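Write out a record, focusing on structure:
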Amino acid sequence: MIQAGEDAPDFTASVATAGGELETLTLSDRLEDAPVVLAFFPAAFSGTCTDEVGAIQDDADRFADAGGTVVGVSTDLPWALRAFAEAEGLSFPLVGDHDRTAVEAYGVTADFEDLAIHDVARRSVFVIDGSGTVTYAWAADHPGQEPPYEDVLAATRAAES
C-alpha cells in the first residue's frame, strides 16, 4: 500500500454524469484543487460503504473548509456509482475503477473470500497535497471498519497549509 511521503500514483477513471454520459477524471488534473481526499470503498449500495459515503457527505462543508476535494473510488461500473451517488445525495464524484488501475497502483485490492467477492477496493483513504505527495494513508483492517473521519479531516487541513 502507498504510504505517506510517497508520490501519489496518477490515474484516469470514468465518472457517469447525471445524464448517463461518461466523463473521465484524472487525479493529476485535480491537484490544483488539492488537497485531494481519495476515499476507496468496496461496493456501492453495501451497508458500510453507504455509511461511509454518508458520513463524508455529512462532513462535506468541513472538508471544503479544510480546502479538500473529495473523490470516491470503487471498482463498480460508473453508471452504478452514478445511481449510488444520486440515491445518497452525494456532492462529490465517484469514479469507476473497473479496470482496477487505481486500486492496484495504491495497493488496496481486496478479496472477501467468505463472500466470494474478489478484486475490489479495500476501504482506504489517502490525502494528497498539491505537489502530488501522499500526506496521509489509512486502510481498514476489516470490511466493516470505517475511516477515522476526524483524522482524515485533520490531515486534509494539514495538507492544505
Remarks:
- Helices lie at 27-30, 47-58, 60-65, 78-88, 101-105, 149-160.
